[in-house]
Each structure stands twice: as C-alpha cells, then as structure tokens.
Amino acid sequence: MAEAGIGARRDCEDMITGGRVRVNGKVVTTLPCFVDPAHDVVDLDGEVIELPQSATSGAADTAKTSRAHTYVLVNKPKGVITTTRDPEGRRNVLDLLPPAMRKDERLYPVGRLDGDSTGLLLLTNDGDLAFQLTHPKFGVAKEYRVVCSGLASDEQLQALKRGMYLVTPGSDGTKTSKKASMESVRILKRFVDRSRGNRTLLSVTLREGQNREIRRMLARVGLKVRELERVAIGPLKAGELKPGQFKLLGKKDIERLRSAVLGEG
Known about the structure:
By secondary structure, this protein is an alpha+beta fold. It has 3 domains: 9-48, no CATH class; 68-138 and 239-261, Pseudouridine synthase I, catalytic domain, N-terminal subdomain (Alpha-Beta Plaits); 142-233, Pseudouridine synthase (2-Layer Sandwich), CATH 3.30.2350. The chain is 23% helix and 29% strand. It contains 7 helices and 15 strands. It has helices at 9-17, 59-68, 99-104, 127-134, 154-162, 213-220, 251-261; strands at 21-23, 26-27, 42-44, 47-48, 71-76, 108-110, 118-124, 142-149, 164-169, 175-180, 184-191, 199-206, 225-233, 236-237, 246-248. Strands 5, 6, 7, 8, 11, 12, 13, 14 and 15 form a 9-stranded mixed sheet that branches. Strands 2-1-3-4 form a 4-stranded antiparallel sheet. Strands 9-10 form a two-stranded antiparallel sheet. The protein starts with 8 loop residues before the first helix and ends with a helix. The model is unreliable at 54-67 (pLDDT under 50).
C-alpha cells in the first residue's frame, strides 16, 4: 500500500488495523497481511488500490532486491508475541533484536506462533518470499515438536492425518469452515508418569497452517497440548540457536529457502 502511494507505512498499518482494508472482499485487521499483486484485489474504504507488481525480470533486479532485504531467524521463547507492535505493551518478537536493527529495518514476522508456543520464526522485509512461505499453494513444510497430555493412540493419529474442518470467526462477524490436516504426525516417545501425568511427544509437520491449528486439531481428538515448539521452517533448523537468540541468514540459507518454495529441496 505504501509503495502504491496510499500513505506512509505507519499510516497504512493504522488503516489495516482500523478495519478499513479488504483483501478479496474480506476485511483484514492483523499484520502482517501478505498479498499477491497479480491475483489479489485490495481495497481501501471500498476503492480498489492499484498495487505495484513485483520486479521479476532480469538478474540485475534480482540482485538489487537481494541486497535490500534482510532475513533474520529467531528462536522465539515462551511469552513473546508474534507481532511488531502491541497496545498492551507485551514483549514482541522485535524486542529480541538489537535497537539498531529494529530502527533501520522494516521487518515483519512470517507466519505466527502464539504466545505459549516456542521455536523458529523468520523475520524479513522481503514481501515476495514471505508471501511464498505462507501461501498454501507453495506448501513449504514446517515441523513441530508437541508434548500433549495422555498417551496418544494410533486411532487419534489417523484422525489427525485424515483431517477435519475447523471453524474460524472473521473480524466482520462471519465464520468460515476450512479443512485442516497434518502432512505427518508420529509418536516420538510416550511418558508414563503417575506423579506428573502421562504424556506423549509428537512430531508434527504442516504445509498449510490455520490459527492455532495444531492445538485445535489435537483438542478435537481428545489431546491437550502442554508444549509446542516449531523446530524447522523448510530447510532451516535451530542448530545452536537458543531461545531468545537470533541470527542473520546468509546467501546459502536464502537459496535453500527459495529452493523449498520451488519444491526443489
């Protein structure tokens, strides 16, 4: 929107959070909201915005874009929210970065992890890559480690693999129903513990995420999530990155991410 001349970035953010912007007819009020200028229709107060198309021709344009973009991998600890601003003053993901980086870069989190969840989160100002990593048609895998209460059964795992419809309320009061399923789910370990209660450690892989999808799906089959950690985004893993730490991604990491988007990795 800012590139289309609607206003400064902060003004555009206020327009979105104020409920004045629609994408394909649906009001959006949360940030970030990624769109494909070639296919999505964005309107402000009912008037369609002519979005600038991404520069996709020529190696020189690609090189110029790469130099202008920043990619930061964060290991989000529990209690930190996935947003760049919070009216309640809670700690957010940008607070994990140095002040100079927060000031000089317009970084947004790609996807979400709720406050109680931990693990990997990508921050970038590359809207094209962020769109590709979150759009269902690209299907980039995200892997999670989940500790749930009880001893999960094979029948429960099969139900998760088959999928189920989840109802999500919209900001305009409407409700939408969308099928959710897990690319894979397997038991890593069962813990029989009379004092703390039985638990199961699961490995879960998603290629398309809905709001709190894992927690809601497990609840539907009778399993309550106690801990949830994202351990991989495509080819990216935490390695030695501890909770609360971050690292700037280099050229090889970005190339691996782009290969995952294209289905080459």
